Amino acid sequence: MKNKQKYIIITPFFPSSEAHIGSYVYDQAKTIANFEKYDVNVVKVTSFFSNETDYVFEGIQVKIFKVFDFPFFIFPGIFNWLNSIRIKQFFHAEKLMKNLSVIHTHVCYPSAYLAIAITSITKVKTIVQHHGIDALQLLNGRFNIITKLQKKILKNRSLKRLNKIGLSLSVSRCVQSALHNFNSYNPKDEYVLYNGVDREKFFPIENFKKSEKYSIGCIANFWPIKDHISLIKAIELLVKDGIKDIDLRLIGSGEKLKDCQRYVKENNLSSFVIFEKERAHTEINKFYNEIDLFVLSSYFEASACVLMEAWATDTPILSIKKQGIAELIPKHEVNNLLVNEKSPALLKEKILGEYQRKRKYPFDEKYDIKNTISEFLNYNFFKRNV
Question: Contact, 32 vs 377, CB < 8 A?
Fold first, then answer.
């Protein structure tokens, strides 16, 4: 199709050959492009001091835009003004203005700010997608450096700017609800777009031979909020109860990794808890098929992609209540697959229940990314004039 309308994705995270963060954004971009209505372009936002240059990732051109990214609470007006001028120049220089139809940004700052700047020079549909980073983390206090002053600035400046965006996307209803906790938040339109799964990447492997042990897996950064220690202690309780034909396989890195490794060593759990190297995203499907249960003990997940990916392999998933994934679990499975946070004893009981069942957990195909994106692109927002 000649002269397709441009669909520009502005995002601070997108995978490359060296790093895999942002794999879902890639899957989303690829799926939108595959519907062949839009010419999809990706603008990756990086630090002004970054050495990253333009690149192509699996057929998608990624253009690098470097922003002045000093702490946003220091003279925010000046840096936003400079970035606004530069993004307009960038769009013209990169020939992104021709047939421009949609700008889809990921997270509020700075991506959505840049989209708002473009609306000052042309009519274009604008979208901001909230992953929880710019909503729930402020409410839950993940970053201790966030002060009352910073929260006030976010509330009075960022959220009011967001009200200028045409469509506010949330990856779960819990993220959407968190945004509405801010009195100044008044979006023009809203939509919940769950993190769909690329079924060409994640699927059950037929006749796959598993380990003789009952294997539990977890893929997550070793951050305090991920609460790996509760999961490790749950395994410790199972071992103390005489269940020793199990293992826990952990993939990830981060500030709490050494603490977890130390606990495992000091409590003689090395035969049951295995710390594995991080893998390329393309190699994760095999891991999901190798395990019997996937557990994510985080007490904050907006809509964890890893839970959806594991589920896509028909592997049972176990997570924490009041999270995004809880919205997708059928009511009759809630008591089996969801548990209260920070409770090794309760985690142990839920894991034991799945250990005794030793079952498959069929995926709900409506969360195939082809289906979630198809429904999204048919939303009335895309049919309305700017």
Answer: yes
Whether pLDDT at 1 is above 60: no
Measured between alpha carbons, how far is 330 from 128 in angstroms, rounded to an integer?
A: 29
| Residue 246 contacts residue 221 (beta carbons within 8 Å) | no
Coil, strand or helix at 321: coil
User: How many residues in the chain?
Assistant: 386
| Tens digit of each residue's pLDDT (9 = 90 or more) over 70-109 | 655 555 567 778 899 999 999 999 999 999 999 999 988 7
285 pLDDT tier (thresholds 50, 70, 90): very high
What average pLDDT score do residues 299-312 get? 90
Q: In whole angstroms, give the CA distance from residue 317 to residue 325.
A: 10
Name the phi and psi angles at 374, rounded to 5: -60, -45
Q: Give tens-digit pLDDT for 29-77.
A: 999 999 989 999 999 999 988 999 999 999 899 999 999 876 555 555 6
CA 136 to mean position of chain CA atoms: 13
Amino acid present at 121:
I
How many whole angstroms separate alpha carbon 268 and alpha carbon 264?
A: 6
Q: Where are the alpha helices (DSSP H) in 8-106?
A: 23-34, 76-93
Residues 76, 153 contacting (CB under 8 angstroms)? yes
Measured between its terminal Cα atoms, the distance across the chain in Å is 23
Full set of structural domains in the chain with CATH: 5-196+368-383 (3.40.50.2000), 214-364 (3.40.50.2000)
Nearest to 300 by CA among 337, 260, 261, 342: 342
Task: In the chain, count H helices and then E strands.
Answer: 14, 14
| Cα gap 216→330, rounded to integer Å | 22
Q: pTM of the full predicted structure? A: 0.90
Phi, psi of 143, rounded to the nearest 5 degrees: -95, 110
pLDDT of residue 76: 57
